[in-house]
Write a structure and sequence with these properties.
The complex is a heterodimer of chains A (about 500) and B (about 600). Chain A contains 20 helices and 18 strands. Chain A has about 500 residues and is an alpha+beta fold. In chain A, the strands form 5 sheets. Chain A has a 7-stranded mixed beta sheet, sandwiched between helices. In chain A, a hairpin with a 7-residue loop joins strand 4 and strand 5. In chain A, helix 1 crosses helix 3. Chain A is rod-shaped, with a radius of gyration of 46 Å. Chain B is α+β, with helices and mostly antiparallel strands. Chain B folds into 4 domains: about 70 residues, Phenylalanyl-tRNA Synthetase, Chain B, domain 1; about 200 residues, 3-Layer(bba) Sandwich (Phenylalanyl-tRNA Synthetase, Chain B, domain 3); about 70 residues, Phenylalanyl-tRNA Synthetase, Chain B, domain 1 (2-Layer Sandwich); about 190 residues, Bira Bifunctional Protein, Domain 2 (BirA Bifunctional Protein, domain 2, 2-Layer Sandwich), CATH 3.30.930.10. Chain B contains 16 helices and 29 strands. In chain B, strands 4, 5, 6, 7, 8, 11, 12, 13, 14, 15 and 16 form an 11-stranded mixed beta sheet that branches. In chain B, strands 20-24-25-29-28-27-26 form a 7-stranded mixed beta sheet. Chain B has a 3-stranded antiparallel beta sheet with strand order 1-3-2. In chain B, strand 11 and strand 12 form a beta hairpin. The radius of gyration of chain B is 33 Å and the shape is globular. The two termini of chain B are about 45 Å apart. Strand 11 of chain A pairs antiparallel with strand 22 of chain B, so a sheet runs across the interface. Chain A: Belongs to the class-II aminoacyl-tRNA synthetase family. Phe-tRNA synthetase alpha subunit type 2 subfamily. Chain A: Tetramer of two alpha and two beta subunits.
Amino acid sequence: MEDLRSNILAYIDKHETCSSTELCKEMNVEHQKIVGALNSILAFGEIISAQPEVTSRLELTDEGRQVADHGSHEAVLFASVPAGDGAPQSELMKSVPNAKIGFSKALANRWIRLDKSAQGGPRVYRQVESVSDRIRHCLQMVAALSLDSLTAEERAELKKRKLVQEGRVTVYRVAKGPAFTLTLAKEETELTAEMLATGVWQTLTFKAYNFKALGQQPDCGHLHPLLKVRAEFRQIFLEMGFQEMPTNRYVESSFWNFDALFQPQQHPARDAHDTFFLTEPAACRLDAEQADGYLARVKAVHSNGGYGSIGYNYDWKESEAQKNILRTHTTAVSARMLYQLAQQPQFQPTKYFSIDRVFRNESLDATHLAEFHQIEGLVADYNLNLCHLMGIIREFFHKLGIRRLRFKPAYNPYTEPSMEIFSYHEGLGKWVEIGNSGVFRPEMLLPMGLPESVSVIAWGLSLERPTMIKYGINNIRDLIGPKVDLKMVSVGPICRLDK
Amino acid sequence: MPVVQIEKAALCQCLNRKDFTDEEVDELCFEFGLELDEVTSEREMLAKEQGDAKAAQMGDQLSDAVIYKIEVPANRYDLLCVEGLSRALMVFQSLAQPPLYKAVQPAAGMQQMRVAPSTAQIRPYVVCAMLRNLSFTPASYKSFIDLQDKLHQTICRQRSLVAIGTHDFDTLTGPFLYEALPPSDIVFKPLNQTKEFSAVELMQLYSGESHLKAYLPIIRDSPVYPVIKDANGVVLSMPPIINGDHSRITLNTKNVFIEATATDAHKASVVLDTLVCAFSQYCSEQFTVEAVQVNYPDGRASIYPSLAYRQVDIQVDYLRKGVGRSDSQLTIDEICHRLTRMCLVAKATSDATVSVTVPPTRHDVLHPCDVLEDLAIAIGYNNLEMSLPPTLCTGKQQPLNSLTDKLRLEVAFAGFTECLTFALCSEKDISERLRLPLDSLPAVRIANPKTLEFQVARTSLLPGILKTVHSNRSLPLPLKLFEIQDVVYKSSDSSGSAVNSRQLAAVYYGKSSGFELIHGLMDRIMQVLGVPVDQYKLSATELATYFTGRCANVLYKGSPVGTIGVLHPETLAQFDLTLPASAFVFDVEKFL
């Protein structure tokens, strides 16, 4: 093999280019072996180039290959017959392979004769001194792909004897490659510790890597995409100087979820169709809220107004405020935090944020679940107005990579003015709502005890919606819940909201 | 939010813009705080509901005229009909002045409505008004019915707070009586029926009627039902269920008597104002309504509709600061002009004050901040100059959330994948499926779940993770999952509250139980939490969720903070899992 490779390289060195059939003839070996040698040279890199050309050619059958290697059946039989005394026919038939065909062909060629009346049974004798094995020669020429020297009769005979068949043969056009050399080194696949220790790596040649193949996946854990996006939003708020609110309180009183926010007790959002009420614990005590008169102030502003407001003019009931619910928004926590802020001796301007779960007893569909995450930011300071609200929202969304914004008047029970936030969606070619915002109503803030000149501006959005857009998920059940395909979790890219 | 349908042609006509494009209408709506929801037609709507074939079959009976479906804000009852919506937009576009609504008392005396003491038991209030010399067109008639329906669905809270009845006054004779009678004593021919029924029979009749059956519970169990009659004993209505057939209004009705019964007097008055303001434009004397006197048993008499105009004095400085504009950028005249475009007629009473007149159509205005919003809308939100708040603060995380995020990373580094499951689940999930008795759990229970999936707040993270394992059991093994989230416990004191508890749970699911791996993860977590080896140990115990002899309490400084073990084969079976699994659960808050 190594000789053959060296011979081939030497031949190419001399002729620059040649075909694989030419090499067959030159080296006097079968085409298949030449192809093997070429492949082996190709594995060393760009020493040679080999362009395949498919052609239709005669090729050897299994029997033909045997004949090409060992001689035709008749020649083998002839060789088995000792010169002079000959041999008994029965013995030859037993000991020589394919004796039956060989016997009849050799007889027809008049290479042997049969004496049927010899002593001890029919006996075979040579009729000529020596024979020329033309069939074998022809087959060797077929194997070397030099078919030009075969006559039509010879081809027909080989086919008839099923020694050759029509087949497709790939012939190569071989030429020097950019790294042509006459000597081939053995190639290593791995750099081993031993090679480093002995320093032998310096003299070794390394096999080329297949960079088209995939690497082996590392065995690692993964974070959930929604929570990766949550981490990004937290980061944005922290960069903007916001302080996180303690939102780990899913069960909330109607008081903090609605009443404190100046949401009247007959508001449709307080309906069983929208809100999860509880049987255990069904209602809570509002002792602390009662103790400093806050509860009474809230009752008053709902039923009779105050602080410049005419109120809602209805019979406010404490029992309704005591009803426990699963909070419908994190603004319940914002209200608690603003109330605490109002209890400080001196008001401190504050920026708060939270991202946590909220619950709605709504009809479920592809984009709505009974629970989702609300993102909320708020700023409490003296004399804040709509321009500040729009300004901070613009800053926030710029950090998310969203630049085209506009604001639509809207209605929220606890903010006034209120604005829905729209951004231009390039993919959809239209403006889509991305969040809600507003200035908290004085009827909410003043009963808490905040100074009159303090305004609180706030905005909110869901965490699920931007995550679904980011990760191209159409059904929210493919993102959250036990039916999620964990492959989705493992293949999701890292979250860079501004990319 | 409620949706109002308005024909494009009608809108174009009242806005005096024949060439209005859909985009321009969309833009106008956006600016005013409405949302153009859909551009459609009668045929398209039917096709959407009942299929193209049906729509084609109807042929000329359906109109192809363009209809806009416009969403209006939930507190703007005055915009719930075409009349109110188009008038508001006309005023906004300075194409009309805000109308002046008047309640007049006729020289011959007002119609009287006497309230009997019996109504106090069930529905104590009634308000009334009369629209005189009105001419309906088929479109305005339909709109009149639609508005009543929309009011019933919104401010009236499905008729529980207020129910409206409208009648052809020319079929009736005053004075009227509002009383409450035992159901068997009320007998009349209701709307769209051919014979008389008693109230008892009506409740039976309507229990199978999809539109009315929702209102039956409002009075069903009361010993007396409300009823309104005229001087001859003709039943006008049995609120809040149905009107009588006798006084039904038709396209030819000229004088409409309106009554609205209620459990909330203020809302009844708002509803009545809204209805008469919108439709008094069809009266021969536009925007004028005839008043009706309501006499209560205590001798008190009230005159309706109130149609009250309220004066609010507002500091100009408050308005300017609110929209971020200086004196020169926003003059008092401009403020007045812009507020008038919002139907809030305003005039300067000094250099520093404007007096704003809130009309009876604008019951949504409670406080000067509502006026401020209207000023901002009239200027255009998107014309305001944005600026960043000057507020300087330092960012700060909740320690629990910060710790949670760091632990999430460490557990993921250790080769576990994060799940995110629901905080609500079924009772079975937290009890039977974990082999625990339900009454042993401090679970928060939901009163009104729509499905079994929302019966309780979870008391353990394990069911969610095991369900996730089940959905992903075809993935290459082993599955290594974790979740760090809150569970909820009912508080043990009498405060009637509940608390969240931040937990970390991890599950290993594979051909073998993998307990040593789950144990190793726990060791690793304790290591990264900086817990010295002598402060943390596992102490064998028996818990039903885990397999016998393969379960331990996790002790931190001697007290239990969690549990660890091989899951019980029956726990696995509860989640349809066929391979062994190990798990731990522990309380993150103990390590704050």
